Structure prediction request, 1626 residues.
Amino acid sequence: MKLIMAVIKPFKLDAVRTALTELGVEGMTVSEVKGFGRQKGQTEIYRGAEYNVEFVPKVRLEIVCDDERAERVVEAVAQAAQTGKIGDGKIFVSDVGQAVRIRTGETGNDAL
Amino acid sequence: MKLIMAVIKPFKLDAVRTALTELGVEGMTVSEVKGFGRQKGQTEIYRGAEYNVEFVPKVRLEIVCDDERAERVVEAVAQAAQTGKIGDGKIFVSDVGQAVRIRTGETGNDAL
Amino acid sequence: MKLIMAVIKPFKLDAVRTALTELGVEGMTVSEVKGFGRQKGQTEIYRGAEYNVEFVPKVRLEIVCDDERAERVVEAVAQAAQTGKIGDGKIFVSDVGQAVRIRTGETGNDAL
Amino acid sequence: MSVHKYRCGGALLALATILFAFPASAQELSGANTAWILTSTALVLFMTLPGLALFYGGLVQSKNVLSVLMHCFAIACLASVLWLVVVYSLAFDEGSSLVGGLGKVMLSGVSFDALSGDIPESVFFMFQMTFAIITPALIVGAYVERIKFSAVMLISALWLIVVYAPVCHWVWGGGWLAEMGVMDFAGGLVVHATAGTSAVVIVLILGPRAGYPTQLHPPHSPSMTMIGASMLWVGWFGFNAGSALAADGSAGMAMAVTHISAATASLVWIVIEWMKFGKPSLVGVVTGMVAGLATITPASGFVGPIGGLCIGLIGGLVCYWAVGLVKEKLKIDDSLDVFAVHGVGGILGTLAAAVFVTDGFGGAGLADGMTVGSQLGVQATGVVATVAWSAIATMVIVFVVKAICGLRVADDEMEIGLDLSYHGERDYNL
Amino acid sequence: MSVHKYRCGGALLALATILFAFPASAQELSGANTAWILTSTALVLFMTLPGLALFYGGLVQSKNVLSVLMHCFAIACLASVLWLVVVYSLAFDEGSSLVGGLGKVMLSGVSFDALSGDIPESVFFMFQMTFAIITPALIVGAYVERIKFSAVMLISALWLIVVYAPVCHWVWGGGWLAEMGVMDFAGGLVVHATAGTSAVVIVLILGPRAGYPTQLHPPHSPSMTMIGASMLWVGWFGFNAGSALAADGSAGMAMAVTHISAATASLVWIVIEWMKFGKPSLVGVVTGMVAGLATITPASGFVGPIGGLCIGLIGGLVCYWAVGLVKEKLKIDDSLDVFAVHGVGGILGTLAAAVFVTDGFGGAGLADGMTVGSQLGVQATGVVATVAWSAIATMVIVFVVKAICGLRVADDEMEIGLDLSYHGERDYNL
Amino acid sequence: MSVHKYRCGGALLALATILFAFPASAQELSGANTAWILTSTALVLFMTLPGLALFYGGLVQSKNVLSVLMHCFAIACLASVLWLVVVYSLAFDEGSSLVGGLGKVMLSGVSFDALSGDIPESVFFMFQMTFAIITPALIVGAYVERIKFSAVMLISALWLIVVYAPVCHWVWGGGWLAEMGVMDFAGGLVVHATAGTSAVVIVLILGPRAGYPTQLHPPHSPSMTMIGASMLWVGWFGFNAGSALAADGSAGMAMAVTHISAATASLVWIVIEWMKFGKPSLVGVVTGMVAGLATITPASGFVGPIGGLCIGLIGGLVCYWAVGLVKEKLKIDDSLDVFAVHGVGGILGTLAAAVFVTDGFGGAGLADGMTVGSQLGVQATGVVATVAWSAIATMVIVFVVKAICGLRVADDEMEIGLDLSYHGERDYNL
Ligand SMILES: Nc1ncnc2c1ncn2[C@@H]1O[C@H](COP(=O)(O)OP(=O)(O)O)[C@@H](O)[C@H]1O
Ligand SMILES: Nc1ncnc2c1ncn2[C@@H]1O[C@H](COP(=O)(O)OP(=O)(O)O)[C@@H](O)[C@H]1O
Ligand SMILES: Nc1ncnc2c1ncn2[C@@H]1O[C@H](COP(=O)(O)OP(=O)(O)O)[C@@H](O)[C@H]1O
Prediction:
């Protein structure tokens, strides 16, 4: 199995979720993160002083899927999350040795 | 070493922690996440309009442990986090190549 | 490629970021987490009752980099994040099979 | 002729006996009334800052909350200065029956001991100013999350001069509606009908938020909204009971019916949501509260407790229906329901006042020579004139402002949120 | 005989000279007193909305905060309408010495210019209503995070009629305790003792929160609690100084002693926590403040500054001890310490009033013919009667409500949180 | 000689006609004035709790917010008790021209019906107390995020006795500045100049926050700051208009100019930030508001609307410049700009009062025998004396406290945050 970890722009979450549902991916885990990268944060102003905020709010997805589907998932995320502007984010893929569904105890691909 | 990543119901965190402590696991890292899966979120009502909130609040654990212990950790988490109802969550296991304890510079199993 | 996941003390984030920039690392993803470990949380007092809060606020970094650089990144993080006091945190390294830059579709090391 | 008399004229028409006790000239300062109107002024300012700002701020996304607070705060400042410079004079100085004169520009001629009725004119000026502050701020609820800050400032400034000043003069400044005997105790027409109507006009030109109507985000902080709503309720005591311009039985009854209407309309929303969804919501109940308050406003000094109860009931029901109508049927993104709650409530209450003022409902009684029918005619005239003028003048204003500085923010600014894009700030740095 | 006289009777017993200056009949409207009571009414409403709601809301988990705000808001609406419909009449209309009559149902016969003492009866009605709003809302603190919304509404409604109305009549409406000369200036018995006692009774039947006592969560927002506490403090000026029903030296001294008691009791908590834990907490100090305020309430118009200081000291100490007693010893999950703070404070202050009213402590002096001992006897009678009736009647009410709609939410609803389960809303959508 | 006369003396110097109407002795209670000062007392307490606390709390990091609220709350309690025990007497009892006597310690001799002017002395005592509460609380803004709680308590206590009491006596208690005819209607010298000066002195000894000036964190909650600012604005009506000690035209005009100055200075900040950054910020505009309010305070009862406008304009501009000067040029970590806003504003307004009081600007007119020049001389004397005494006395106090308990928290406590380190609490447990 593969763990696909994607960092995307927050407002693209809905589009990505829709794309994944179409692929039959039934689950994912999402968290809010701060991104540091080429895209820089906004300048904030408080009482006449400017603060350079270096991070950009991003959303991080984790999707575990079987090996065959992994490539299509990566493509779907990449497509749905793209705006073509800097800061669109990254997708990283790594191996997962085991998966367990806590409710039933099922393991492996059945657990997804 | 193995990284055990578990997504569980938030109110099960205490039970899981207790189970792990009994196993001798001394550390873990916890974050709050939004889960999308078979379990659907609640309906929210604002000014007479219903909003379907599609995510469910979950808690995500990351535990790194040595290879031998990994299986027992997975079992302990699975058992402690189970309610038998939909949305109990998943456990994913993957390999970790290296671990460092920042304070001392120890590496490998010693770092855990 | 390697995924370097580090859990550090929040106030060390700036120092770590500076160290990484010097190394030429251009991106990272940061999230706020709760740490459980040897370092214990503070006692909180409410209306004459003491609550033992068992977690400690930590910051979690994820940096993906090419294999050669990985070791230097780990060292840089370890050095910049160290205070020598309990709770300095951990660094875990694992393999990443694939990386994609969403904006351009570049893959592998080019995507970082 | 005293400025005060017109104001009272609107409010106390039906209280002829009291009117006789206040000869228009040669009055003495009433310390008691002054104390109460000083207090009421503080209460009504509190309604806008921070009351209304929080009420609205909690209902938007967390990335736009500061922009909403900023709109309310900046409008308050702008309206205050404009009020001094020209709007007070246009509203309350003698002039034609259509608009006041320029004799009170910069409060010229108003000394420390000048009186308006039996309170200092400085106090009357301040009390009325707080109404001129909250009215354009009410409109904010319609255009949140997508409007340029410059457009907010320009529209509000022009609107105060072109819409608020004349309508206020018509009703409270001795203008033609006052002469007809229109009843608007505390601003059903002057405040709520003008704001509600203009709200719709603005959003029709401005367009809806991105994602409307399917992908909206729920209110980011119902607790913030509830805090603001509670402040509105408490402040409304100054709004309505202060409009008696005296600390007497009229003020007391105005406070009582105001309260009862708010409570009743809130319960109406609880019951509707309970029946419809099984879950009465906090955002729902406080919306009901505002509906009850807006509806009782024009009637508050005229009706008795039974009237308050009935008006709360009707206000709650009709506004609930109107919220659905505007958003779901008409598909207008009047984002925080300014028209459905304030516009509809204000108009409804203005009409209802003519009925519940009668002795039969325990009200203060119709003015001599009026029947329910004739009073209803006057009220309807007031509504039509106010709505028509608000709509037309606002349309012109908005097109002018659009030409000058544009209305709508860019898509990516909307996405980042107005807080960072327009004010360089972010809330909730936890 | 005027309704007002009894109310004054309670408050001014000791101020015989003033009493003589106010003949019960043929009074004229005092604009000054009216201005102050209108203001006080706004202040006391502000105590509940949003004061108390925030005070309590900050102390619960973030998944239940909206339910707490909703309880307070909905109770306020319900109590307001019930007050008009029947409770005001039961409390303040003439009747037997046990309960008032039905002559003032729907405020029938109360015209715009009806007086109660020298203020409009509409104002007296409103001022007293705000007390009837806050009292059942105080009880909310006991049963948070586990009770059904329907049970909250039903219990509060019945409680107002069966507990609040008669006790209010006994003490302020000319009932048997007033005839005995009981001293309760602003509600030690009527408000705090009733609420505190009933709180315990309800939670004994309802049961504790899941996880009590070992796995509780700390207050989710001490800052929200502090905001609410501050509003309570400010609003309490209306509560206690308003209870003089006049803008005079009695009101001034009531405000002064109220303030001093609050400040002193807060400092007591700071000192205790500093000594015990090394860390004085914000939640602690504001709890001390409420203890000081609750304790001074019955005594506020009777005692002088030294009395205020002493009562604050005693109130702070005893309530601190009581919090530990109830939660740790008796293991009763009176979640936000309603009994330990309000119940104990109110009772303590009612007894202390008899001592500190004396000239020796700079008080207004005992009523003619009373000694400290005899007055203490009267006060103790008041306490016993109030506590007993509150306990018994509340028990009956709760069992009835349990039979009708159940009290406790299901376990998984509690786990999800009452906000989503019962109101379909979520706070903090950041 | 009545205490009240001195207070009026400061405020009403220029209003000679009114002064004559108030003979110092044998006055009767004015219920109307009492009602307004009771209300003003509530408003000014509200400024500190929770107004100022929230204003400051929103500007710090989320890990220190509770400590800021705690500082304000604990200072309020401490100041209240000290005020009763000794400070009121030192400020307002007869004594020398330098400091009051000890005749009113514990309010001894002040009965329920004692008058101060035409209001109860208990009310005057309470109204003045709220000023003594807010003044040391203003200083909190300077030393946040790095000071020990014990140092806060000790410094505040000593400061009230050694700095506040004498300066208050000089200006309002019949001391030497009052005798010279200094004009300080509501506390430009007594409140703002003292607090601003002492703030700088404290932080010079205490040192800056870790990370100053390059690594500071932005305000954690601009919305919290805005809520507090709004409460300050509303409460300031009690502060300034209440300082008339009457519900009359003087109070009315004081309220009007206060409001206009606040609005104008806010607009000034909007314009400056818009021109400089393209993004007017909420934190900026509310800072401008405070600058406008602080600047008008000493002048508020003396100047007319034009004066209010001009003072707001000047106050906004000069304070904006001062913020940059202190932080960027002088590199003093007066964290929340207490000196730049309150100190500079208070001093500026004290001087400006001498100009704008004149008839030419629509003011109340200079006192008999005064010219703008001579009045400016008196005002400047007041400023120099106040600043000098505040600086010297505060320096001594701070060194004493440093010796007793230390000032600065340990580095790791600062890192963890004062909330957990010093109060064992955490906000935002979401
Ligand atoms: N090497 C990396 N490791 C982990 N996360 C990264 C890395 N580089 C970028 N990111 C994440 O991806 C986001 C987007 O990257 P950025 O460089 O801004 O734009 P782009 O991907 O379009 O070149 C960053 O905000 C960060 O969260
Ligand atoms: N393929 C997946 N990859 C990552 N996380 C997943 C995946 N499937 C489910 N999850 C996480 O597990 C949680 C529980 O899954 P769900 O399908 O609701 O219930 P169950 O595991 O009982 O079948 C989800 O809310 C989500 O956070
Ligand atoms: N086995 C582990 N797996 C995942 N995270 C861990 C593990 N052990 C420790 N951590 C993380 O590292 C942090 C620091 O660990 P701790 O034991 O407190 O100190 P130290 O690393 O200095 O011995 C913890 O708060 C936790 O977030």
In short: The first helix of chain B runs from residue 13 to 23. Chain B has a mean pLDDT of 93. DSSP finds two helices and seven strands in chain B.
